[in-house]
Amino acid sequence: MVPKRLGGSAAFLLTLTLLAAACAPAATPTPAPATQPPQPTPPPPPTPTPAPKTLVVCMAQEPASLYLYSEAMLVKSHVLEAIMDGPIDSRTFAYQPVILEKLPSLKDGDAVVEEVEVREGAYPIANAAGDVVTLTKGVKVKVLTDPKTGKTEEKTFEGGSIKLPVMKVTFKIKEGVKWSDGQPVTAEDSVFSFEVAKAPETKTPKFTIERTAEYKALDARTTQWVGIPGWIDATYFINFWTPLPKHKYGKLTPAQMNEDPEVNRNPLGWGAFMMKEWVAGDHITVVKNPNYWRAKEGLPRIDTVIFRIVQDTNQLLAQLLAGDCDIGTQDAAFDAQAEFLKQAEAEGLLKPQFVLGTSFEHLDFNIQPAPGYRMAAGNDVFQDKRVRQAFAYCIDRKAIIDKVLFGRSDAPAVYLPSIHPLYAKDAVKVYEFNPEKGRALLEEAGWKVGPDKIREKGGKKFIVTYGTTAGNRLREQVTQIIQKQLQDNCQIKVELSYKPAREFFADWPDGPVFGRKFDLAEFAWVTGVEPPCELYKSDQIPSDKNPGGQNNTGYSNPAYDEACNRALGTLDPEEKKKWHAEAQRIFSEDLPVLPLFVRLKIAVSSPKVKNFIVDPTANSEMWNIEEFDIQR
Q: Rounded distance, CA 349 to CA 343, Å?
C-alpha cells in the first residue's frame, strides 16, 4: 500500500511528538522491597451502559386520532402496533395469536357448536342467508347435522319451536400481559371494549356485534363469545375484542370516549411502547414500555420511536437519503419512485421492499348521496349500472399502471387480487379498455354529446367532481390521467378536488367520503386474509343509525348481501368458496366501485434497520416493531 503523505501542521505535530519522546528523561528504576506485600485485586471495570436507540419512522399522513374506534386510517395502525400489539395478527393469508394463548378451534374443543331450542317469535336469530331476523313461519334457517364440524343444512321453519345451532368460543389471554401503567390486561377489559363498540355512538362496523348473543368474562383471563341462534361464523376464532382499559376509561360513556383527549391522543396500551407526546402536525413519540410482557426476551430492542409526519413524498424520500428518517411507510405511495428506489438499493443507500398485497385502489361512485348533497349531473346519475360500466370501459387502467406503477401491478376485477386463494376467476366480469362500448352504454342510458362536447341529459351536463387525498403524488397523477381519459374517450367533464386525509376520511356525517357527499372518490381499502365482501353490503351504508358504516357508495343489492352473508356464515370450505364466487360475480356486474389497481406495498428503510418486514396481509408494516433494531 502506498503511504499517504502528511502535510503542513499534521507533519509538524508528528515531528514534535517524536522529539518529545526522544528528549524525555530516562526513568530511574526503584529497587524492589525484599518482601512484596499482597496487592488488592482491582475491581472489574464497570459494564458500559448501551447508548439509547432511537428510530425515526416517517409517515405521509397524520392520524386524526389514536382511539381504537375512531377513523380507520393506515397511519393510525402504525402507531397502534407500537402501543397495542395484536391482539391477533393477520400475516401471509393466515392468523396468529399475539396476546392470546392460542386461536380456538372446533378440533381442540375451545370452540363448540351446540343446539338450542328456539320458539316462534324469537329475536334475534340468523336465517339461512345470515340476516338477523325474527323467527316466523316460512323463514329458512340452518339446522345442525354434525356438531364436530359445524356442518348444517337448510330447513323451512313451520311454526312452534325448532333447534338451531349456537356457537360458543373461548379465548384466553396470556399470563403476565399488563397495561403500560402496570395493571393487568383482563377479560373484563375485552368485554368492556365490546360494550363500547356495541354502543350506537361508537362509529365502528356492527356486523359481528349484531350476530353476538353474549360476550362475557369467564375468569380474569378468559372470555367467551356466543353467537345468536342460527349463526355459524366462518371466522369465529378471531371474535375477541381488542381490550380497552376499564380501570382508566370505565367511568366514561362511549360518547365521551369519542371526544376525550386522553382516549384519542394519549391511549393506554400493553405493547412494546407507550405514548410520550404528540405534537400536532409534526410527530408522535413513543418510548419503551417498562411493563411490556416480553421484556425478558430483551424486547423491544429500540428505546424510542418517533413517528414523524412528512406529507410530501419527495421530501420524505430526501429525508431517508439524508438519514433523518430510518423508515418510510407505505402510505407515502412510493410507487412513482420505484425505479429510483431500485437504483438507491443497488448503491447501498436504501433498502426498499416491494410486496403485492391485498389492498386495492378504487374509484367509488356515489350511488346513494346523503340528504342535502347535490350533484351537477343529478343525484341519480350513478344509480344506473350502465353508467358505472361505461366508466370501466372508458378508463384505460393498464395505461395508468404502466405510467405510475411501471407496469408492476394489475387491475383487479373485484375487491381482491387474483393471487388471493378465493379469487373467482371464472365467475367475474372483466372490463377491458373499450371506449366504443363505454360510449354506447352512455348513449343507451340517455347521455348524448352536446354542442360543447360534454354529454348531457334532461338539461343537465355530465360534470362530476372527483376527490381524493391531498399531498399524494401518485393519486394526483392517477386523477389527472382519468380526468383526461373521461373527457377524451367519453366526453365526461371531471373537476378535481384534493382534501387533507383527516378531512377526506372523517366519519359520518362530516366527511365527504363516509358522509356520502361526493360524486367520485378515490382511495384504497387495506384488506387482509378474508375477502372483504362486507364492505359493500346494505347494512354497511353510513347513516345516522350506522355512523361507522363502510359502504360509502350507498350500493344495495339483496342478492349480493345474501351471497356475502352465506360466505361469511359457513364452516364448509366448498360452501365458502361457492358463495364468495357468487358475491364476486354480482359485484363485477353491478360495479359499485371500479377497482383501479392492486396496491404495491412499498416501504423503505435504511440499510442499518434490522428485522423490518413488509407482509402481504398484515395491514401495517409495524406488525413486529418490538423486533426492530438499528445499527448506528
A: 9
What does the block give as the cell for 449? 354529446
- The end-to-end CA distance of the chain, in Å, is 30
Look up residue 252 and give its three cell numbers.
Answer: 366514561
Give dist(CA 283, CA 613) in Å, integer. Answer: 23
Q: Kindly indicate the confidence band of residue 469, based on its pLDDT and cuts at 50, 70 and 90.
A: very high
Amino acid at residue number 296 = K
Q: What's residue 108's pLDDT?
A: 96
Q: Residue 92 — pLDDT band, cuts 50, 70, 90?
A: confident
The answer to whether 57 and 307 are in contact (CB under 8 A) is yes
Distances (CA, A) of 220 to 22, 171, 217, 260, 518: 78, 11, 7, 27, 47
Residues contacting 193, CB < 8 A, separation 6+: 68, 241, 242, 243, 244
Assigned C-alpha cell, 166: 349456537
Count Cβ atoms below 10 Å from residue 207 Cβ, excluding itself: 18
| Confidence at residue 44, expressed as pLDDT on a 0 to 100 scale | 72
Stretch 592-605: mean pLDDT, rounded?
94
Q: d(Cα 378, Cα 368) in Å, to the nearest integer? A: 11
Which residue shows C-alpha cell 392520524?
A: 63
CA distance 96 to 88: 6
For residues 475 and 461, what is the distance between their CA atoms, to the nearest angstrom? 26
C-alpha cell at 11: 507533519
Burial class of residue 442, CB neighbours in 10 A (0-12, 13-18, 19+) = buried
Q: So what's the pLDDT on residue 452?
A: 95
- Cα separation, 395 vs 466, whole angstroms: 14
Q: How confident is the model at residue 462 (pLDDT cuts 50, 70, 90)?
A: very high
Global confidence as pTM:
0.78
Q: Which residue has the cell 511528538?
A: 17
Q: What is the pLDDT of residue 72?
A: 81
Q: Has residue 280 got a pLDDT over 90?
A: yes
Task: Please give the helix or strand (H or E) that residue 565 lies within, else none.
Answer: helix 558-568
The residue type of 616 is P
The SS3 of residue 409 is coil
Residues linked to residue 520 through DSSP beta bridges, in sequence order: 365, 466
Listed in sequence order, the residues at least 6 apart from 208 whose beta carbon sits closer than 8 Å to its beta carbon are 233, 239
170, 222 Cβ separation under 8 angstroms: yes
HEC string of 587-624 equals HHHHCCEEEEEEEEEEEEECCCEECCCCCCCCCCCCCC
Sort strands 351-365 and 520-525 into parallel, antiparallel or unpaired: antiparallel
Looking up cell 353490503, which residue turns up? Answer: 537
Among residues 519, 517, 567, the alpha carbon closest in space to that of 542 is found at 517
Report helix, strand or coil for 246: helix
Nearest to 198 by CA among 504, 463, 546: 546
- Cβ proximity of 328 and 320 under 8 Å: yes
pLDDT at 395 over 80: yes
Rounded-to-integer distance, Cα 71 and Cα 507, Å:
6
The pLDDT of residue 529 is 87
> Who's near 145: CB < 8 A, 6+ residues apart?
151, 152, 153
> Is 141 in a helix, a strand, or coil?
strand
Q: Please give the Cα distance from 587 to 533 (Å, whole number).
A: 9
